[in-house]
Amino acid sequence: MTTLYALCDCNNFYASCERVFNPALNGRPVVVLSNNDGCVIARSNEAKALGIPMGEPFFKIRTLAETGQLHVFSSNYVLYGDMSDRVMQTLAQFTPNVEVYSIDECFLDLGNFYNKDLLSYGWEIKQTVQRWTGIPVSLGVAPTKALAKIANRLAKKSDKAKGVLVLTDPHHIRKALEATKIEDVWGIGGRYAKFLKKHQVFTALDFANLSESWVRKHLTVVGVRLLKELRGESCLELEEVAPPKKGICTSRSFGKRVSTFNDVQEATASYAAKCARKLRAQKSCARLVTVFVTTNTFSENDRQYYNSKTLCMPVATNSDLELIHYTNLALKAIYKDGYFYKKSGVIVTEIIPENQVQLGLLDTVDRQKHRKLMSTLDGLTNRFGRSAVKVATQGVDGSWQLKSEYKSPSYTTRISELQTVNIS
Questions:
Q1: Distance CA 144, CA 142 (A)
Q2: Which among 152, 20, 41 has a CA at the least distance from the CA of 86?
């Protein structure tokens, strides 16, 4: 069977989401900030042209925002997640087999489409996504996933390709490999790139010309798979169903310095509830819960403290009530008065399928009742939003919440924030 993959990548995704609902931003510099409005995590092309690097602290570019030279937004992950779903559902119209690789990337299986005009089909995909969602995308088509990654990267940067590039001709593939730096190859991290350059491997083509035995010795079997992929031999199959996570962590920095147990408890309980919801989404339960707290290590004037506690729950669970209960027990064991806390977090591990949970002989929890309650809670959350119903321990005012002074409305997920049109 002949393989053929397309990688569809949303251009400057977070910035593009903001532009969909505010067209006045088109052609203007836009950046999106990390949690707590800390640093830049997404930039439009115009922002890149201003010389704003990824990870730039916001305080260094605040003047540009205040003078109107730069448009700044706090992270709006609910909006970005919903827009991502719309893009992925649109892409699924073009092939029955897709792999959602990340929030803004998706692999499409085009193995049965070799007889089509691939360039025209690529343009049809690109234009349909733009028309149906407002999100601009780039598309790279090639016989393997690694080559599709390279094709997509070149499609973004090439004025000739204008967002769509098909690499099926051996001559064109060779040219693409030659034009790709080794550090830009999918799966080659900074450490490996530095090592390879010491051995005169500067491009993807240099890597593809290495012997398999040398790659196996220095980059293990993972490197051999990449080598074969760059040579046109497909080794990475499409993952249509993402495997369940083996560990889930929810952690955030507080929006302000927190010094009371109640505030830390509310935040940590909220993180536990998010972990529980993620477990239910993948139909899993967890046996171990780890809670950690930390002060601000960058503050020279504050006393420093970090600690964590892991508890083994009697029965693996995905219930908000149970997970919050054991989270509170762990937090009480490590919390200390007299510190300004910057961050807390919850990690759940020893995750198993919910239909394989082994009950305890002395277990007194009505698990059937918990399942019904959590199902109802998830239904209300899906209908009315994440804060509609929650456990009392999670609090109400959320004074510890992240700073998001520049957050845009939840245009697609909250009725009260839908855009309105005035007709006069």
A1: 6
A2: 20
| Burial status of residue 330 (CB atoms within 10 A of its CB: 0-12, 13-18, 19 or more) | buried
Among candidate residues 112, 190, 203, 189, the one with its CA nearest the CA of residue 150? 203
Tell me if residue 142 falls in helix, strand or coil: strand
Interatomic CA distance for residues 383 and 322, integer angstroms: 24
Domain of residue 271, residue span: 248-394
Give residue for tokens 């046996």: 287
Q: Is the pTM of this model over 0.85?
A: no
C-beta separation of 253 from 34 below 8 A = no
Number of separate domains in the chain: 1
Phi–psi pair at 320, nearest 5 degrees: -55, -45
Give 285's Cβ-side CA count (13 Å radius). Answer: 21
Q: In terms of Cα–Cα distance, which of 346, 352, 290 is closest to 317?
A: 352
Q: What are the structure tokens assigned to 265, written together?
A: 């408890």
Kindly state whether residue 314 falls inside one of the protein's structural domains.
yes
Query: Using the 8-state DSSP alphabet, how is residue 184 labeled?
Result: G
- Count of residues in the chain: 424
> Strands 71-73 and 284-295: what pairing?
unpaired
Is the distance from CB of 110 to CB of 6 less than 8 angstroms? yes
| Strand, coil or helix: 247 | coil
pLDDT in tens, the chain (424 residues): 588 999 999 999 999 999 999 999 999 999 999 988 889 999 999 999 999 999 999 999 999 999 999 999 999 998 999 999 999 999 999 998 999 999 999 999 998 887 889 999 999 999 999 999 999 999 999 999 999 999 999 999 888 889 999 999 999 999 999 999 999 999 998 999 999 999 999 999 999 999 999 999 999 999 999 999 999 999 988 876 677 888 999 998 888 888 899 999 999 999 999 999 999 999 999 999 999 999 998 888 889 999 999 999 999 999 999 999 999 999 999 999 999 999 999 999 999 999 999 888 788 888 899 999 999 988 888 877 777 788 888 887 777 777 788 999 888 887 778 888 778 6
* Helix, strand or coil, per DSSP, at residue 331: helix
CA 78/CA 58 separation, integer angstroms: 22
Domain assignment present for residue 376? The answer is: yes
Report if residue 202 sits inside a domain. no
- Asked if residue 34 is part of any domain, the answer here is no
